[in-house]
Amino acid sequence: LARLQARHDVTVANPRLPEQLPAFQAALATAEGLIGSSYKIDEALLAAAPRLKVISSVSVGVDNYALDALAARGIVLCHTPGVLTETTADTIFSLVMATSRRLVELAGLVREGRWTRNIGEELFGWDVHGKTLGILGFGRIGQAVARRAALGFGMPVLYHSRRPVDLARKAPELAGKALHTPLDELLRHADIVAAVLPLSNETRGLMGGREFGLMKPGAIFINGGRGATVQEAALLDALDHGTLRAAGLDVFATEPLPMDSPLRTHPKVTALPHIGSATVETRYAMAVLATTNLLQALAGERPTAVFEMTAG
Ligand code: 8YV
């Protein structure tokens, strides 16, 4: 905030709070830059912001933004790739561990004073090391998850992405350890499937009843990308009536997760409140990068991290 205020007039307003919405709307009328995250930027908002030149998102995902409308108006969109990769991969791997080893459930047993004897086999977990991990989406975060799995846990890794990644060049440590695999084949062979997909027309609802039905009996599903890439009713059906062992979810179709969502309290679900990047160090790095991006764009320079609209 201090860096921005040193060079610009800044209005701080949270449009999600009714009492701050008028100040936000008033500022939009003259704003040339906008910085923040998780707020829907649609045509109506852009119409109210005639002088807007740049949006700097404190996130890597850009699914909240009407990309076509931004491109049509020549508005530059910046985001924060890179700085959150390792932290988000840590979160996703935490869900792999938590679901497989039943960590939350068993920690609850201790906390509630129910650890009165050695636990019986009905509470045993499932090994993680050596299991086959399928990764849906193989960008920076997917590759960082693959490194943890392949190099740290001896897991064969299958990945699904639009195109095979040239691992020899981009991630030599994963060459021969992570195999590009068609979706159906990956679902049939992986013991644990981790989705790390951005939300786009191509990925919306990608995991549905057919896909969960292809998964191995006793497999685990993890989602650390975007909630709407999964059809939640189909996931619940697979947990209740199919053979899915467990699900670990950091993201949901609607966030915060509605109180009446069965995913909130499902015994087979470990649900987190979208904390993929939420560490002190990483959120600070994201804020710094987003601020730098905004200042650069407003100064007419090329920002460090522009989201290339045409690359999708
Ligand atoms: C943020 C994320 O928590 O970067 C992203 O795309 O999902 C998260 O790191 C989210 O955008 C809220 O700031």
CATH superfamily of the largest domain: NAD(P)-binding Rossmann-like Domain
Q: CATH topology of the largest domain, anyone?
A: Rossmann fold
Structural class: alpha/beta
* Major sheet summary line: 7 strands, parallel
Strand runs, count:
10
Q: Quick one: CATH class of the largest domain?
A: Alpha Beta
**Approximate shape:** globular
Number of helical elements: 12
How does CATH name the architecture of the largest domain? 3-Layer(aba) Sandwich
**Sheet with the most strands: spatial strand order:** 6-5-4-7-8-9-10
Q: Distance N terminus to C terminus? A: 30 Å
How many domains? The number is 2
Question: What can you tell me about this protein's structure?
Answer:
The protein is of the alpha/beta class. It folds into 2 domains: 2-82 and 279-298, 3-Layer(aba) Sandwich (Rossmann fold), CATH 3.40.50; 85-271, 3-Layer(aba) Sandwich (Rossmann fold), CATH 3.40.50.720. Helix content is 35%, strand content 12%. It contains 12 helices and 10 strands. The chain has helices at residues 2-7, 21-28, 43-47, 67-73, 85-101, 103-111, 140-152, 167-170, 183-189, 209-214, 232-240, 280-298; strands spanning 33-36, 54-57, 76-78, 133-136, 157-160, 178-180, 192-195, 220-223, 246-249, 269-271. The strands form 2 sheets. Strands 6-5-4-7-8-9-10 form a 7-stranded parallel β-sheet, with helices on both faces. Helix 5 crosses helix 7. The longest helix has 19 residues, at 280-298. Bound molecules: 2-keto-D-gluconic acid (8YV). 2-keto-D-gluconic acid binds next to loops.
